[in-house]
Amino acid sequence: MKDKIKIGILSIQGDIEENFNACKDALKQLNIEGEVTNVKDYNEILDLDGLIVPGGESTVISTLLSLNQANWKLLKERINEGLSVMGTCAGLILLSKRSYDKRIGETKQKLLEILDITVERNAFGRQHESFETELEIPLIGEKPFKGVFIRGPVIKETGKDVKTLAKYDNEIVAVQQNNIIGTSFHPELTEDSRLHVHFIKTILKNKEPKNIR
Questions:
Q1: Dihedral through CA 105, CA 136, CA 185, CA 76, nearest 10?
Q2: What's 10's domain CATH number?
Q3: Is the pLDDT of residue 127 over 90?
Q4: How far apart are CA 210 and CA 124, in angstroms?
Q5: Annotated active-site residue in 18, 23, 120, 186
Q6: b/e string for 132-154 if b means 16 or more Cβ within 10 A?
Q7: Distance between CA atoms of 191 and 182, rounded to whole angstroms?
Q8: pLDDT of 63-120, one tens digit each?
Q9: Which of 18, 23, 188, 198 is catalytic?
Q10: Which residue range(s) make up the domain with 92?
């Protein structure tokens, strides 16, 4: 019997379609029956096995999401309960405990404060300074992964439960903390879906029955 999972893409702003397609490709590669849906009604979060917070404008996503405190509280509760989540670029910032800007310092941006990291926004410069580079991510295989950095943040500090997945120029650019994966770059903007495959494997692991003693 095949596993069946439901993955949502938080559809406020950003790379929504790109993550949708990457998840579809990853499910196909794993030969897993699953559903990918765009999440606009936050009650849908209750039925999800996994959620992606896409890259985009972190301030816009944060502002619009926090307009409804019930939605904000629901999302935070579900992640704390173990909902598997992947945040890319803006999504990484939104999940972080602390964020500051390279130029202006501390920001008043509202964060979910779930992923135990400190993020420096726009660490690689502005839009015109976007770039692509090959990253070594041993967790997903020996073949380098193309990292697409668009106004990308870097992770300056990590908590004890946070595992570093990748670095660029000696800066941390991908991490995992139990059910949460965060990347400074945009894996959804490549044809390589290995990080989305890893995310789905994380979902399946979290769905496994826990041993009761």
A1: -80
A2: 3.40.50.880
A3: no
A4: 41
A5: 186
A6: eeebebeebeeeebebbbbbbbb
A7: 19
A8: 787 777 888 888 899 999 999 999 999 999 999 999 988 766 666 788 999 999 999 9
A9: 188
A10: 4-207
Has residue 103 been placed in a domain?
yes
Q: How many domains is the chain built from?
A: 1
Asked if 124 and 171 touch (Cβ cutoff 8 Å), the reply is no
Whether 19 has a pLDDT exceeding 90, the answer reads: yes
Averaged confidence pLDDT in the chain: 89
Question: Is the residue at 74 inside a domain?
Answer: yes
Angstrom CA distances, 166 to 5, 14, 110, 174, stand at 27, 23, 26, 5
Establish whether 89 is a catalytic residue: yes
What tokens does 103 get? 């130029």
Is residue 213 in a domain? Answer: no
Predicted pLDDT of residue 3: 54
The reported pTM is: 0.91
Other CB atoms within 10 A of residue 158 CB: 16
pLDDT > 60? residue 186: yes
What are 94's two structure tokens?
């939104």
Catalytic residue among 89, 120, 196, 198: 89
